[in-house]
Amino acid sequence: MLKTILAISGKPGLYKLISQGKNMLIVESVSADKKRSPIYASDKVISLGDIAMYTDADEVPLSEVLESVKTKEGGKETSLDYKKASAEELGEFMAEVLPNYDRDRVHLSDIKKLIQWYNLLVSNGITEFVEKAE
């Protein structure tokens, strides 16, 4: 599911891959307006399925971290407002979601982005983060 959700450098929010053209992708914003636009090869695009977070041991896929946030928040948007939260509150939130996260390599901006993305996905009905095994 997360493989088709994209983060595009320089553009706010998240985008869903709709189709692929010759030298471009057609994406739709993950928001109420569902605005479609072309993304070209010059744009830096990353799939949420390819993102992982550092832990003391190795890396944990973003899908598992989002699933952990979903469990913590009961499937609702986060109770923590990432824009107003202190560094300490963000750290506590992250420690609950991913207890062994690497405190040196996971920055506050990463935690804020995690919360922002999670809330955006949940508010737009995207709540299946981990592929269910058949």
Structural commentary:
- The chain is built from three helices and seven strands, in the order βββββββααα.
- Helix content is 29%, strand content 22%.
- With 134 residues, the chain is α+β, with helices and mostly antiparallel strands.
- The strands form two sheets. The chain has a five-stranded antiparallel β-sheet, with no helix packed on it. A two-stranded antiparallel ribbon has the order 6-7.
- It has helices at 62-73, 87-97, 108-123, and strands spanning 5-8, 15-20, 24-29, 36-40, 45-47, 52-54, 59-61.
- 20% of the residues are buried.
Element order: H for helix, E for strand: EEEEEEEHHH
Largest sheet: 5 strands, antiparallel
Note the gap between the termini.
Answer: 15 Å
Alpha plus pi helix count: 3
Radius of gyration: 15 Å
Structural class: alpha+beta
Short description:
With 134 residues, this protein is an alpha+beta fold. The chain is built from 3 helices and 7 strands, in the order E-E-E-E-E-E-E-H-H-H.
Record the SSE blueprint.
Layout: E1 5-8, E2 15-20, E3 24-29, E4 36-40, E5 45-47, E6 52-54, E7 59-61, H1 62-73, H2 87-97, H3 108-123
Any descriptors?
134 residues; alpha+beta; five-stranded antiparallel sheet; two-stranded antiparallel ribbon; 3 helices; 7 strands; globular
